[in-house]
Structures are given as C-alpha cells and as structure tokens.
Amino acid sequence: MKVLVTGGAGYIGSHIVKALGEKGHDIVVYDNLSYGHDWALLHGKLKIGDLADKERLHSVFEEGRFDAVIHMAALILVDESVRDPLKYYRNNLVHALNLIETCTAFDVTRFIFSSTAAVYGIPDQVPVTEQAPLVPINPYGASKMMVERVLNDTAIAHNFRHIALRYFNVAGADPLARIGQARKDATHLITVSLRTALGMRDRLDIFGTDYPTQDGTCIRDYIHVDDLSAAHILALEYLMSGGKSSIYNCGYGHGYSVKDVVEKVKEVTGIDFPTRNATRRPGDPPILVADAARLKNELCWIPKFDDLEYIIKTAWEWEKKVHSQRQDLL
After folding, report:
1. Which structural domain range is residue 242 located in?
2. Which of 164, 226, 270, 306 is the most buried (most CB within 10 A)?
3. How many domains does the chain have?
4. Is 155 contained in some domain?
C-alpha cells in the first residue's frame, strides 16, 4: 500500500515509518521538520512541507495517489497548550482540517489519527475505556477531541473511514538505538530523567507530590513506542480489509507513579541523580491508565514490550548514543 505519514520524521512517526517499511509498504513522509529529522527516516521518501500550505499538500496528494493517511503531525506539550491555546487550536485542529479536506478531494478514504488520552481529562474510573466521557482539561486534549469529532462527521458525510488511536504515555526507543526521542525540549518523564542522569540537566523536577495517589505523584500508563507502532499497522490492515471507523486506547492497562519511574531510571542507569519536589503543572490529571481490551479483542493487538525496565533500557541506550556520538542531532 502507498501510505502518507504526516509528521513521520518525529519521534513516534519515525518508529511508525520503520514498522511500515519493515512490512514492505510504500511510504511518503510529509513533515515540516520543525521537530522531526530527516536522518530519523529508515524507510520512505520525505516531502518537506507544512499542513498550512494547501497548495503544497494538494501537489503531494496529486503525485502520491495514496491508499491511506496516518496523521501524526501535531503540537503535544500540555503546559504550552495552556499558555498558548490558539497556537494549539490552529496547528492541531485547523491544519488537520486542511489534511482531511485534501483526503476527501483526492478520494483517500482511509485515515488513522494520532489522538491522546488527554481527551478524557480526569476520568471518573480507571482504567478508562473508550466509552468514557470526553472532558479534556487542557487545550492540547481539547484540540485532539475536536479533530475526532471532525473525523466522525466526515465519515457520515463522505466515503471515509478512520481509526483514532488514543495514546497513553509513549516511551522507549528502537532496540537497535537507530532512532529515538530527539527533541531538545522533550518533557516526557523518562527522557528527562535519563538526560538528568547523563548530566544534561542539574536536577529532575517532580511536578506535584500532593495528588490523590499512593505516593502523591501522578500515575501514567507507559507504552513502548514499538508496541504503539504495531497498533498502527493493525489499524491500517483493518481499514484496508474494509473495517469500520473506530477508536482504540493504546496502553498496557496499568500505571506507574512518577516516583516509581524515577527509581527505575536510577536502577537502570546506576546513577543517583538529584530530584526536587515542585508545584503541579497546569493540565495534569492525577491518574491516566488505559483499558485496551477493545484494541486487543478487535485488532488482535498483542503487546511485546510491557516491561518498564525494558522501556527505560531502550531509551537509555538511545540517549547514551546521542550524548556520546550524535549530540548535534538534538
């Protein structure tokens, strides 16, 4: 199949491109490289462009004649979305509209959307199912929820089927350390902890120690990026076989607190780096854990890397490589 991957040169996108390439698909990556890197593409062809540029987008679609689109391009920082919501609504919603309109114009009827657990806000029950109310507590989550609504309405009005994959906390790296998280401003806990262990930061701030959890810190469901990539392959195959539009949580069904993760990072690295208790960040729910039964039952998703130590080890090998050999890539 010929697949367009927007944002495919980024952290998660590059792992999805890797998985698509290993399956033999013909891949075109559309990325403005604001956060992605051309060296991260192990397969496929890169088309540099922005989703705001409708003329460029139409040109790529006209040339590509795609069977499906996987939409990864988005801004993802929760705290930044609180400070600058209009930036997030423009980039995540308006630009997605441009892409979806282009799909309908070129009769591309299969669409996989990178959504997020942030659409749930603070769920009443955990693990949270796909039927839970959507009550996001930050503009990032709200922007993703709005795109999901656009996709639903588009599917009603057009010959158009989509899968929205709601990511929980994605972490880890390629086991061969070829690709991994390469953003200088990465805020994900595991990445920040590892960079603190490497001495790239003076200390690790723990944002909030007074949450209603066992140790007072937030609890999250961490999924290895390769297991998440496998879910995209299954979603693509499902749509190509005639499957209907649907939504799936992507997580393991159990969580770890911030303190749990920090202790495991110290254990894996053998480095006892300094931490500091800090105030809560705006827009952070206390607990987010997935119920992924639908993904397992309907798409036959079988996670292979449900192990916090393994997740951290793969990320650690990548961070050490970048720090010692390829620091210029960050």
Report:
1. 2-171+221-250
2. 164
3. 2
4. yes
Q: What is the pTM of this model?
A: 0.96
pLDDT tens, residue by residue, 277-314: 999 987 788 999 999 999 999 999 999 999 999 999 99
pLDDT category of residue 75 using cuts at 50, 70 and 90: very high
Give the E-state strand segments of the chain in sequence order: 2-6, 26-31, 45-48, 68-71, 110-116, 161-167, 169-171, 204-207, 219-220, 222-224, 246-250, 256-257, 275-278, 287-288
Does the active-site annotation cover 211? no
Region 203-227: what's the mean pLDDT? 97
Strands lying side by side in the sheet with 2-6: 45-48, 26-31, 2-6, 68-71, 110-116, 161-167, 246-250
User: How far is Cα 9 from Cα 263, in angstroms, rounded to an integer?
Assistant: 31
Structure tokens given for 172: 């880890």
Q: Which residue has the tokens 């689109």?
A: 69
- Which of these is catalytic: 88, 89, 140, 222? 140
Q: What is the pLDDT of residues 217-252, one digit of tens each?
A: 999 999 999 999 999 999 999 999 999 999 999 999
pLDDT at 329: 57
Q: How far apart are CA 11 and CA 23, in angstroms?
A: 19
Give the mean model confidence (pLDDT) for residues 26-43.
97
Contact criterion met (CB below 8 Å) for 3 and 24: no
Length of the chain: 330
Query: Is the pLDDT at 41 greater than 60, yes or no?
Result: yes
Q: How many angstroms separate the CA atoms of 119 and 47, rounded?
A: 30
86 and 193 housed in the same domain: no
- Do the beta carbons of residue 33 and residue 8 sit within 8 Å? no
Q: Above 80 in pLDDT, residue 327?
A: no
The answer on 54 and 150 residing in a single domain is yes
Q: What sections of 253-325 are H helices per DSSP?
A: 258-269, 293-299, 308-324
What are 275's strand-pairing partners?
204
**Cα end-to-end distance, the chain, whole Å:** 32
